[in-house]
Design brief:
Pdz3 Domain, 6-stranded antiparallel β-sheet, 3 domains, about 475 residues, alpha+beta
């Protein structure tokens, strides 16, 4: 139920029919006065509905009352965004260098994956996508709006941009003249608050997901593999991906540690009997497996003898022929990562694991075509004995995991993409202010030392040129990276 619930996809024909119908519905609402009644208007060739909400604006006023607290939050947000922008910049530079040195080797993805619209993109299901985008866009714009109010800037309107039930964005409309005339630091805090709020929300939701992940137990003890190596003993015996191995030679296997201990006691060329639960049918079967030599396997892959020995592999070690071996709760444990209650590490381990787990979450919808957990691994889950599991059961836990996953995924996506150093992203505005501050510093240095005297308009001119050029160059390179695989 977890994967299928709200995981809906739509095709291009349905999208076209929907847009045509939506256009005429908006026209009718406009003529009948409904849009005026709802304080809404049509924009973007009349295809998008801008819905302004007084309740959202009133809530913004109440939330932003502790001005000092939100100013501190804005300063923290700014430092977080500077760090995230550095990561984004390093990623962009690495991609540029890689493309220059090795060429663009990216696989051509379906065009529909390039459109981040729930239901239309095969990696973003309609139901979960709408829920996640509404939540993440609202808190993103609330981040901007709260900072504007905390620094005395007025917010004229707040609301959502809609195409039918699908949210295309949220907006907070501050007084732009007040933003332009505000101190640079306050303006930067306002721009940083949106993406930083998404990043903070993602981290908090990861912690919640970790606790939920601890509520699961495996439906059956044992281990499974997502990949069977061709012509290996496991392949020849008929073992298939996602089959659960429960015993080897009568010894029970609870988890991967049990599997490793049993395999350490066996030798190459030995024949063993292995009990499995078939993923395709759920039937228990016994397979006769001829084990091969792990040392010889890695030699055949091209590994040097020194490297193989450094991996503590010796001649005669038993090799079954499975890869990516995991236990019954691996599907949800992989998502929880560092936040799982069973994860133990020092500070350095968390520093390394958190970005890796974040990247893993981002690529999951691409790997599993719009779902959080592979269906086979979802079938291996059962509810545990925790209070939450007892309250909502297995189906409730799976729904909650999917909801948390998509909230995390969209928050990460919005947080980091908005920090691209190009207009109109928040990162573009931050970059522009950074350039302006640098140029102002150079001008002031010249005045103090008497070495040169730059006109104030020089600062504005260089800032505009640098901002426009960086946005153009980045846009051109992104188009190249996206379009090159299709050429």
């Amino acid at each position: 139920m977890g994967s299928g619930f709200l995981s809906v996809e739509i095709g291009w024909t349905e999208v076209l029919l929907f847009l045509i119908t939506w256009f005429f519905v908006l026209k009718y609402w406009e003529k009948s006065g409904k849009l005026d009644e709802w304080n809404a208007s049509r924009i973007f060739f009349g295809m998008v509905l801008m819905v302004r909400t007084k309740k959202g604006q009133l809530a913004l006023e109440k939330v932003s009352k502790p001005r000092k607290f939100w100013r501190i939050y804005g300063e923290i947000s700014l430092w977080v965004c500077w760090g995230a922008m550095l990561i984004v910049a390093l990623g962009i530079i690495l991609a540029i260098v890689s493309a220059i040195l090795m060429g663009n080797q990216a696989e051509a993805r379906p065009v529909s994956e390039l459109v981040a619209i729930p239901g239309l993109s095969p990696i973003i299901p309609l139901g979960w996508g709408i829920i996640a985008f509404v939540f993440c866009l609202v808190i993103h714009e609330y981040g901007h709006g709260i900072q504007a109010r905390a620094h005395g800037m007025r917010v004229r309107n707040f609301g959502l941009l809609m195409a039918g039930p699908i949210p295309l964005g949220a907006f907070a409309e501050p007084e732009y003249t007040e933003i332009a005339n505000s101190p640079r630091r306050e303006r930067q805090r306002m721009f940083a608050a949106g993406p930083a709020t998404n990043i903070f929300a993602a981290l908090i939701l990861m912690l919640v997901l970790g606790q939920v992940a601890g509520q699961f137990n495996p439906a059956n003890p044992g281990v499974h593999s997502s990949q069977i190596i061709a012509d290996s003993g496991a392949d020849e015996a008929g073992l298939e991906a996602w089959d659960v191995i429960t015993t080897i030679n009568g010894s029970a296997i609870e988890d991967t540690n049990d599997f490793s201990d049993i395999m350490d006691e066996l030798q190459a060329n030995q024949t063993v009997y292995m009990e499995v639960i078939r993923y395709s049918s759920g039937v228990n079967e016994t397979l006769q497996v001829n084990l091969s030599d792990k040392y010889e396997h890695y030699l055949d892959l091209g590994y040097s003898e020194d490297l193989i020995e450094s991996m503590n592999i010796e001649k005669g070690d038993a090799f079954l022929g499975v890869e990516n071996l995991a236990g019954g709760t691996a599907g949800v444990d992989r998502l929880a990562g560092w936040a799982h209650p069973d994860f133990e590490s020092g500070p350095l381990g968390y520093v390394v694991t958190i970005p890796i787990n974040t990247l893993q979450i981002l690529i999951t919808p691409f790997e599993y075509k719009g779902i959080a957990i592979h269906p086979a691994q979802e079938d291996m889950l059962d509810s545990g004995d925790g209070w939450l599991a007892s309250s909502i059961g297995l189906d409730g836990l799976l729904i909650l995991v999917n909801l948390l996953f998509w909230l995390i995924w969209v928050n990460i996506l919005l947080g980091f993409t908005n920090l691209f150093p190009m207009i109109p992203f928040d990162g573009g505005h931050l970059f522009k202010d950074i350039v302006h501050g640098t140029m102002s510093g150079i001008r002031n240095l010249g005045k103090k030392t008497g070495l040169y005297n730059l006109h104030p308009l020089w600062v504005e001119h260089v800032t505009r040129k640098a901002s426009s050029l960086s946005s153009l160059l980045l846009l051109m390179f992104m188009v190249f990276l996206i379009g090159a695989p299709y050429l």
